[in-house]
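Supplementary notes for students who missed Thursday's class. We covered one full example, reproduced here. Read the sequence, then the structure, then the short commentary at the end.
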Amino acid sequence: MLTVLGEAVIDLAPSGVGDLFAAHPGGSPLNVAVGLARLGRPTTMLARFSRAAFGRRLQAHAETNGVDVTSAVADDRPATLAVVSLDDTGAAGYDFYLDGTSDWHWTADELTGLPADTRVLHTGSLAVLLPPGADAVADLLAREHAAGRVLVSLDPNVRPAVLADPAAARDRLLTLARHTHLVKASDEDLAWLFPGAPVETAARRLLDLGVRLVVVTRGAAGSYAATTSVEVSRPARRVTVVDTVGAGDAFTAGLLDALVEADAATPTAIGDLDVERLGAVLDHATLVAALTCQRAGADPPHRADLA
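Structure (token representation):
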């Protein structure tokens, strides 16, 4: 069982008809959970779904795609909104509407432990940074990392525009990294975390904090991964890009899927991958992300699509 913790967001994206927008389920953690379930991995999601119409739609999207939401929390606050804009290359930008929404109000009582049989815990994005619930999320990661029973995975997925105190957010993410076995980040995330540092240097700094595997997506430049003993770079796949919405999350789902397949999704084994096995893991994650880029919106592939 893989457990994903974090927000479920409505993406308001250009519909292709004049200035109209279409509402799509999104949010990095929800996208990862759906991506894993479509790849056939038993997946549960710890989310705080609004009881209002958008929240019901988000929960239905998770359930329809095979994500177990029995451990999720219902909340009377509205769902979070993200307004999506696309540039000429299909790259996505986001404007968030976060105030008073359901996703950030985790309490310690709601996060006392993980669903039964969890072997991987993945989280990241805004839920690990925004008050009042971010402290409860951090406490859960620290407890699970100390227990050593599950692989703890983090995707910073930094959104600088919504951070009131960037320095505090940096410190929080670096503290979280100390309680994490796997960090998957974009090169933009690392440039924000470690200004001026090359990707390889930034990855080493995370490894020095105790992270066992760092994986970095670099857009058209491919991906890079490092443990304390090996480094691997892999090229991107050449595809016709419709848009990049959800591509990074699809990569994360493919990464976790490949690590499970390689029997490396444990706190110890993840740091022992050799060059060949780690390269294969990156290739698989790259394929999953590339297929998503060929589709509009956060629409990750099913297992059958990979053939």
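Commentary. The longest strand covers residues 80-86. The first helix runs from residue 28 to 38. If anything here is unclear, bring it to office hours.
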